[in-house]
Every structure is written in C-alpha cells, then in structure tokens.
Amino acid sequence: MNLRRIEERFFFTCMIVSLLVVLSSLVIIVSLIVFNGASSLSLEMITQTPTGGYFLGGSGGILNAILGSLFLALPATGLAYLIGMCISLFLQSDFSPSWMSNSIRLFLDVLWGIPSIVYGIFCLMIMIALGFSSSLLAGICALTLLEIPIITRYIDESIKTVPIGLKESSYSLGSTKFETSIKVIQRQALPGILAGVLLGLGRGIGDAASILFTAGFSNNIPTSLFDSTAALPTMIYSLYAQPNPVVREKAYAAAFLLLIIVLIISVVSRLLTRRLTKHVLR
Amino acid sequence: MNIRKIRNDLGVHFIRIICGLLCLLFFLIFFTLIVKSSTILGDHSLIDLLFSPTWNPTKGEFGLGSVIVGTIYVTVIALIIAIPISLLSAVYLSEYAPRKIRKILRPFIDVLAGVPSVVYGLCAFLLLVPLVKDYIAPFFGIQSTGLCIFTASITLAIMVFPIIISLCVESFDAVPLALKEASLSVGATKWETIKKVVFKASAPGIFSAILLGFGRAFGETIAINMVIGGVPRIPETIFHPGQTLASLIASSYGELMSIPLYESALIFVALILFVVVLLFNLFSVLVLRRTKRKWKL
Amino acid sequence: MITNPEIQIQTKHLNVSIHNHEVLKDVNIIIPSKKLTAIIGPSGCGKTTLLKSFNRLLEIHENVQIRGEITVDGINILQPKLDVPDIRKKMGLLSQKPYPLPMSIYDNVAYGLRIHNHMSSKKIGELVTHCLKEVGLWNEVQNRLHDPASRLSVGQQQRLCLARAMAVQPEVLLCDEPTSALDPLSAQQIELLLKKLKNDYTVVLVTHTLRQAKRIADYVIFLYFGKIIEQGPADQVFNNPFRPETKAYMKGDIS
Questions:
Q1: Same structural domain for residues B148 and B200?
Q2: Are residues B282 and B146 in the same domain?
Q3: Which pLDDT value is given to residue C150?
Q4: Can you give the residue range of the structural domain that contains B23?
Q5: Which residues of A96-128 are buried (b: 16+ CB within 10 A; e: fewer)?
Q6: In chain A, at which end, N or C, are there fewer CB atoms within 10 A of the end residue's CB?
Q7: A168 contact residues in C (CB cutoff 8 A)
Q8: What is the DSSP letter of C20?
Q9: From the CB of residue B17, how many other CB atoms can be counted at a distance below 10 Å?
C-alpha cells in the first residue's frame, strides 16, 4: 500500500508542477508585454500615425495599425457571422437531412485548424489573378475565411441546445421555418452566438499570417477598400527586431493593445455564456 | 400568407445557396493550390522537391528536405514537451481540483488559447532568445544566437498546451462516474483509477487531442518565424537555427515575384501544409466522433 | 365532398412509422367538433404521435413516414401541396412542458398575431388582454406584461402557452398531457380552463391519467400499442366498454 501511495503522491506533485508551468507561462507572457508595452503606450502612440522614416525612428504612433486592424477584423467578423448563421440554420434537422448535416459538420471540424497562412496564400493568388495589389479587401477576405469555421462551430453548438419543444411551439402557431429561425431560435441561442462572434473577432484581430501578404503595409489610415493597410499583428511582426528602440516601442505598444483586446474578449465571452440574456429559457 | 411564404422560400433558398457556395469555396482553395503547384511539379520531380536538402531559389534549387527536417524537429520536440505537461494538468483539473479552483483556472487556459501568435513570438524573442543565448546553450557548450530549434520548440509547446488540455479535460469529464466508482469500490486509489480506468476510457479523446495539437504545431507560422532563425539547412544541434515549412512561406514573401518558379514552389509548400493538417484534423475528428457515439449509447 | 359538421377531424387508415418502427397502425378515428376528446392508453403507445400528426408537426423529426388520410373539415391535410403553416394555425398546441418563447409575456401572446395578421397595435393589445383574461392570467401579470416570460412559474407559463395558442384563433386545441409537469393546484386550473374552452373549441387531450379523462372528456379514444382498441362517447367507454383490453385498462390491470 505504501508504494501505491508514494506513486500517487509523486504523480500528484508532477501534476501541480505541470499546472504551474502552464500558468506561469501565461503570467510571464502578460508581465513581459505589460512591462514593455505599458511604458510605450502614450496618448501620442494611439492617436497618431507614423510620420516619415518609419523604420528609422520617426515619431508618431500606431493609429494606422489600430484602425487598420479594426477595418479588417470588424467587416470580416460581420461577414463570417452572416455566413456562419446561414450554415448553422441549415444544419438544423428540419432544414437538411442528417447525412448532409453530418458531412458539413465534419467538414467544418476539419477546417477548424487550417493554418491561416494557407488562407492568406489563397487570397493572394486570387488577388494577383485579378490584378490587384495588397488591399483592405483582400485582407478582409482572408480573415473572413479564417473566422468562418470558428464562428460557425460556436453558433452551431448554441443552436443545437435550443429545445425542440420550443421550435414545435413556434411552428404550431403557424410560423414558417424561416420566421422561427430568425425570431425564436436566434433569440434563444443568443448568448452562445455572441460568445462565438467575439471569439472569432479576437482571432481575426490577432492573426498575422493571413494578412501578411494580403493587406500589405502602409503608414496611413486606409481610405478605400483598395488601399494597403497596416494592422497591429503585422506591425509587431515587422518591427519587433528593429535595432532602433524607438521603433521597437511601437511593436511593444501594439502587443500590449492586442493583449488587452484578447483579455477583454475572453472575459466578456465568458460572462455571456454564463449569464443568459434575460429572455432565454433555462 | 403569400408574402410570408415567398419570404420563407427566399430565405431558405438563400441559406442553401450560401452553404453550397461555401463548400465550393473550400474545394476551390484546394484545387487552386494544386493547379498553381503544378508548375513547379512539372519542372522538378516530387522526390527532388521533398527530399533534396538544398533550398536556394536564386540558383533554381527548390529542395525542401532540410525544411521538412526542421519542421519535424520543432513539432516533435514541442509535442514531447507539451504532451506530458498538458495531460498531467488536465488530470489535475478534471479529477483533483476542487470546484472553486477549477472555476478560476479554466479562464486562464482560455486566455492562453486566445493570445495571438505574434505575441507569443514577441515574448519568446524578448525572454527565451537571450536566455538560450546567454545561459542554456553555453551550459551545453554550444554557441548560439538564441534563434534556434530549441527556442521555437519551447514556444510552440506553450502554444499547444491549451488545445490539448481543454480537449483532454472534456474527455476525462465524459467518463461515466459509475466506472470510476466501480474502480474505487474495490479499493483502488484515485491515481490507480485514473491510470487504469480513466485513461483507457478516454484514450480516443486523448489521441485526438494530440493529433489536433500536432496539426496546430505543424501549421504555426508567425511565432516560429520570429525565433527560429530562418536558415533552410539541417540544423546540427537544437541550438542551431533551422526553418519550418510554414515559416518558410512567411519569410519568402519579399522575393516572391522576382524569381520564376518561386511562387509555384511556395504554393506547393502551402499545399503540403493544407493537406497534412487536413489529414490530421480529419483523423482526429473521426476518432473523437466514434467515442462520442460510443458513450451516447 | 360531404362534410359532416359534427366531425372536425377524421383519420382513415393512418399508419405512422418512425425510424422504421411502426408507431401507429391503421388508425381510423373521428374527433367530434366542439367537444373534448381524450386519447388514453399506456405510456409510449403512440398517443403523442397521433396528436402531432393532426398539425403535421411530426415531419420536423427525422425518418418519419406517414401513410393514410387525415381530414380536417373535409380536407385531407396530408396532400403534398398544402400550406403547412396555415394548417397549423388552425390547431393550437399545448405541450407537456411549457415552452414560453424567449420574449416578454406580452410578446409571447402577440407573436402569432404579428405573424399572421396586419393588425394595429391597439387591436393586438385588446386581443392579448382578452386571451390573458380567458386563461385567468390577466390579474397576475397585468402590471408586468413586458417582463420576460421565463420568470413566470411553471403553472403560469402553461397558462401563457394556452393564451398564446388561443390568440391565433384556432379551431382545435391539441393538448399533450398538459398537466403532467404541473403541481396539483395549477393542474386543476388548466383542467377547469379546458372544460370551459370545450364549448368554443374542439379539444383533443392526450392523457395518461384515467381520472382526468373521466373528469372532463366527452368522447374517448383508447389507443393501445399503436392500434385503436375502442372509441366512443365517454360514458359508454368508461362504464360499458366493449373490448376486453379496454375493460382491463379501466380496471387498472394494464397501464
């Protein structure tokens, strides 16, 4: 019996150590970014675009990247939400036969982890074929493709939890399938849908690989869909190893902003999934 | 009623069309990748591309051998580090942690999962690279810039933690209480129950978690690119720089247009990434589905 | 087509299979108008399936095959070209477990109205008030009409579902064991309501408590493992049943 207890004690210690390793990585990451980024974050940093001599340490801030990220991620998330909503509604048992919905779900599960750079390359090829150079539009397309599997899965899981009795109640009032979907199902599944959309948005804002080639780079705030644009992740990527510390500061500030955004999204989506909106059935 | 019927029919048709377009789109991606890679496949044989170790596009040499070796090194080492740590953490979270602690810890894992790759890369660059350069590598008697396989592997391992942990916790939680009770009631300790019952029962879930983690590691681009050194040669030691498939694509953007066949070669690399990750994900999902079905019965 | 005004619903050779398992076998019944018909029988023998075939709600489930004829007011509702939501509007459904829609109390009752008719909001308000009064809920909710419906007690929710169903002015009320999830007091309220409503609506009540059926039914259908054993006026089926199975069920030998 002693040996067994010792073995259990040993592995339990290993478990605690492992957990501490995982947790401390997070703590270290947050500390590093906060430490380096907080000091670089000034009002100037977030409200100005870089003035000339970008790599050589001109003044100015990262407003172009902040706005660029928003202009890229928000439309992409909106599109991915619409598409994801359509797909999830289609996957319900009364819209499609189960062999079809099972195949589509398999499809989406499998697409979940495709590296974002593949989407970037694809959009790049389309761009080149159509004769465009890097642009906001191409970046949005790449991000939309990236976000679709993520958002769709969350929406689908939410819609699956809507009890069939609720649907029956709506149908028995003479409601059509489409009306029920929009008015009843969306409402009932709302917390899960919102959480999914937020998580998709978080992924979209933070991803660099897909927009590396497609969105290009620019010192200015984009004014049309066909302008190149900077974004927070690509800014970090291009500036992190620059010799000039003033330039590096921009990367740290951008990283800090990204981290804050991710934390906020994480907290908010957790709150949403836990606290149901007031009309939803328990 | 007519208007409503028309709206319903339109709405349902619209939904069907979007779904159909989407499926088509993803097949389109696959085929476009293949078509664009065919140029280089026409010029060099597949064996040549995959196994020749020299990657020198300016000289027209497109051998991915060393890059593939680099990818395997980084991925395997990362998994070797990540799997035990993730498994043990998951066991603790699922079986030992009191409810309150579990409630507090789960968000931590979620946040870790949500941190963007660039931020991981940046932190690795700020902390790990000097650490390796000044302390770890010299400890082994090797001179290193810190930008190497080792750094990339550790970074990747940390990125993979949340994936394996959350999937494993789900699998462990799904093991029916009755099974665990049966084991404990013959006098087994908690750990023995975990070893003998829980692990066996959730083996498919653990397996698919690992596969998914592998897929993630295989396809990670940015963070690795920032710390691996970007040298497409087979590394002598883990403290030497190397290159991975995904990172190669990111590095090469600048010269994409200037060299013929370069574009095609890189798209071929993207195709490899796409196919490998797809297969791993497919395998993982099928294994997971079989378990879910088993327990539902 | 000769339609007997006294018969609201009639089935001819109705066969229903779910997942290739025969649930209803050659069912031929009539449901008389403006009376309360109770469908009784042991659990799991197809009562709910029969009920849900009347408003074609079965088809939203998978692998359901329906053969035969179901006529409502003389029209076969199983014809392929019919407008299903319209058919359903004629039948109100009260489920075992109350399912308030995820909206306010007011919006729940107004839901059907807003879909089907283009009424002014004043008219909608009047109808909502009327329905809530009919089910005896008005006094309890008149001050919180815009509160979420999910905050009501289970008994109140069930009455709300009834008000909601009545708002679209159906001709038939389909009730699937509506009191089995309620406490005795609320159950009694619902029963009294149904008894009152049967004067204006055709009520079809699925119940597995004989006593409930005895209390309020005018007409009884006894379903046993998918087959109709006996049907007729309540008095006759309860006190003077023809078939041995019915006798056994009344005595409590089979349940």
A1: yes
A2: yes
A3: 84
A4: 1-43
A5: beeeebeebbebbbbbbbbbbbbbbbbbbbbbb
A6: C
A7: 52, 57, 60, 93, 95, 99
A8: T
A9: 11
CATH architecture of A67-274: Orthogonal Bundle (1.10)
Nearest CB among A93, A168, A175 relative to C62 is that of: A93
User: Which of A33-37, A187-191, B41-45, B206-210 has the weakest average pLDDT?
Assistant: B41-45
Mean pLDDT of C161-171: 89
**Residue from the list C99, C104, C168 with its beta carbon closest to the beta carbon of A165:** C99
* A240 at B interface, C-beta within 8 A: yes
Enumerate the domain spans of chain A. Answer: 67-274
Cα four-point dihedral sign A129, A132, A138, A139: positive
pLDDT category at A221 given cuts 50, 70, 90 is confident
**Number of domains present in the structure of chain B:** 2
Q: Do B16 and B75 belong together in one domain? A: no
A155: chain B residues, CB-CB within 8 Å? none
- Provide the chain B residues 223-262 that lie in CB contact (below 8 A) with chain A: 225-226, 246, 249-250, 253
C53-81 mean pLDDT: 85
Closest CA to A118 of B21, B221, B212, B78: B221
Residue B165: the pLDDT is 95
Q: Supply the pLDDT for residue C255.
A: 60
Q: Are B1 and C86 inside 8 Å of each other by CB?
A: yes
Q: Which of residues 188-207 of A touch B (CB under 8 A)?
A: 199, 202-203, 205-207
Q: Within this chain, do residues B105 and B59 fall inside the same structural domain, yes or no?
A: yes
On whether the CB atoms of residues B232 and B186 are closer than 8 A, the answer is no
Task: Name the minimum distance, in Å, from the CA of A279 to any CA of chain C.
Answer: 5
Query: What is the torsion angle, in degrees rounded to the nearest 10, for the CA atoms of residue B234, residue B236, residue B239 and residue B245?
Result: 10
- Higher-pLDDT residue of A14, A218: A14
Nearest to A178 among B12, B23, B109 (CB): B12
Q: Which chains are adjacent to chain C, needing at least 3 Cβ pairs under 8 Å?
A: A, B
With CB atoms and an 8 Å threshold, state whether B190 touches A258: no
> What is the least distance, in Å, from the CA of A275 to any CA of chain C?
14
Q: Distance between CA A213 and CA A72 in Å, rounded?
A: 13
- Specify whether B61 is located in the same domain as B164: yes
Query: In chain B, which among 155-194 make CB contacts under 8 A with chain A?
Result: 158, 161, 165, 189-192
- What is the predicted ipTM? 0.88
* Region class of A43: left (phi > 0), else alpha (psi between -120 and 50), else beta: alpha
- Distance from CA of residue A172 to its chain's centroid? 39
Q: What is the pTM of this model?
A: 0.82
Query: pLDDT by residue for chain B (297 residues), tens digit each?
Result: 577 888 888 888 888 888 888 888 888 888 888 888 888 888 778 887 888 888 887 777 888 889 999 999 999 999 999 999 999 999 999 989 888 899 889 888 888 888 999 999 999 999 999 999 998 888 888 888 889 999 999 999 999 999 999 999 988 988 888 778 778 777 778 888 888 888 888 888 899 899 989 988 999 999 999 999 888 888 888 899 999 999 999 888 766 666 768 888 888 999 999 999 988 888 888 887 776 666 553
**Are B3 and B56 within one domain?**
no
Gap from C102 CA to chain A (nearest CA, Å): 5
Count Cβ atoms within 10 A of the Cβ of residue A10 and give its class: 0-12 exposed, 13-18 middle, 19 or more buried. exposed
pLDDT tens, position by position, C114-128 = 877 778 889 999 999
Closest Cα in chain B to C84: B5
Contacts of A263 in chain B (CB under 8 A): 111
In 3-state terms, what secondary structure has residue B257?
A: coil
Measure CB to CB from residue B114 to each of A86, A113, A262 and give the nearest one.
Answer: A262
Instruction: Report all structural domains of chain C as residue ranges with CATH numbers, in order of start.
Output: 7-251 (3.40.50.300)
Task: Give kind and range of the element (H or E) at residue C106.
Answer: helix C105-116
Secondary structure (3-state) at C29: coil
C55 touches chain A (CB under 8 A): yes
Nearest-CA distance C32 → chain B (Å): 28
Which is more confident, B292 or C25?
Answer: C25
